[in-house]
Design a protein that fits this description.
heterodimer; A: mainly beta; seven-stranded mixed beta sheet; four-stranded antiparallel beta sheet; globular; B: mainly beta; six-stranded mixed beta sheet
C-alpha cells in the first residue's frame, strides 16, 4: 500500500532563517506531488505541484521554492523565512497515470511557526 | 472566480442532529470529479468520497450520504445523527479532466458537534 511521510511535524524558526521540509511517498511510482499551505483557520492554498523529476510548477510567487530530486521525493525550501510563512504545510500525492480522477492523499503536515 | 464554493463557514449542531454541508462547483469541463475531505483537529486531511460527473446516483456510507446534482452544480454532504467525533473542517474539491494537474478546494466548512 502507498504511504506518504512528511517531516518534521512541527518547526519553530526565526525570521531570516532557511527552511527545508521533506516529503516522500512509498508504494507507488511517478506520482504527482503537491505542496499546500493552510494559514490558521483558512482554506488550502496550492503552492507547488510536480508531475515528474525536476518538473515544478509554481502557483503563487513568493518566498518559497520546491524541488523534486527523486521520483518520490518532494522538498519545500526557503532561503530566508518571513513571518508570513507561518502556517500548516501539507504534502500530497496522487496517481500520475490517472490523475484527474484520483484523489489526493495527504501527509500529516508540518506546523511551521516563524518567530 | 471560485471553482468550488462552500458558503457555510461554520456550523454548530447538537449531537444526534442531522447536518448538511453545501458545496457548489463551477466548471466548463464535461468530465470532472468531485471529492470530500475531512480535516479533524489533528490536521491531516482524510479522503472521504469521490464522484465522477457521469454518475449522479446518491451515495450512502453509514451515517454519511452525498447528493450530487448536476442541474444545480452541487455536491452536498449530509451527516445523519451527528456525533462529537464528526467535529472537523470539511472540504469539497474539484478535479477536471482538461486541467488534471490542478485540484481545486473550497474554503471549508467547520462543523462543531456539541454533546
Amino acid at each position: 500500500s502507498q504511504t506518504i511521510h512528511q517531516w518534521p511535524a512541527t518547526l519553530v524558526q526565526p525570521v531570516g532563517s532557511p527552511l527545508s521540509l521533506e516529503c516522500t511517498v512509498e508504494g507507488t511510482s511517478n506520482p504527482n506531488l503537491y505542496w499546500y499551505r493552510q494559514a490558521a483557520g483558512r482554506g488550502l492554498q496550492l503552492l507547488f505541484y510536480s508531475v515528474g523529476i525536476g518538473q515544478i510548477s509554481s502557483e503563487v510567487p513568493q518566498n518559497l521554492s520546491a524541488s523534486r530530486p527523486q521520483d518520490r521525493q518532494f522538498i519545500l525550501s526557503s532561503k530566508k523565512l518571513l513571518l508570513s510563512d507561518s502556517g500548516f504545510y501539507l504534502c500530497a500525492w496522487r496517481d500520475g497515470r490517472s490523475s484527474y480522477n484520483s484523489p489526493l492523499h495527504f501527509g500529516n503536515g508540518t506546523r511551521l511557526t516563524v518567530t | 472566480a471560485q471553482k468550488v464554493t462552500q458558503a457555510q463557514t461554520e456550523i454548530s449542531v447538537v449531537e444526534k442532529e442531522d447536518v448538511t454541508l453545501d458545496c457548489v462547483y463551477e466548471t466548463r469541463d464535461t468530465t470532472y470529479y468531485l471529492f470530500w475531505y475531512k480535516q479533524p483537529p489533528s490536521g491531516e486531511l482524510v479522503f472521504l468520497i469521490r464522484r465522477n460527473s457521469f454518475d449522479e446516483q446518491n451515495e450512502i456510507s453509514g451515517r454519511y450520504s452525498w447528493n450530487f446534482q448536476k442541474s444545480t452544480s452541487s455536491f452536498n454532504f449530509t451527516i445523519t445523527a451527528s456525533q462529537v467525533v464528526d467535529s472537523a473542517v470539511y472540504f469539497c474539491a474539484l478535479s477536471e479532466r482538461g486541467n488534471f494537474n490542478k485540484f481545486y478546494f473550497g474554503s471549508g466548512t467547520k462543523l462543531n458537534v456539541k454533546p
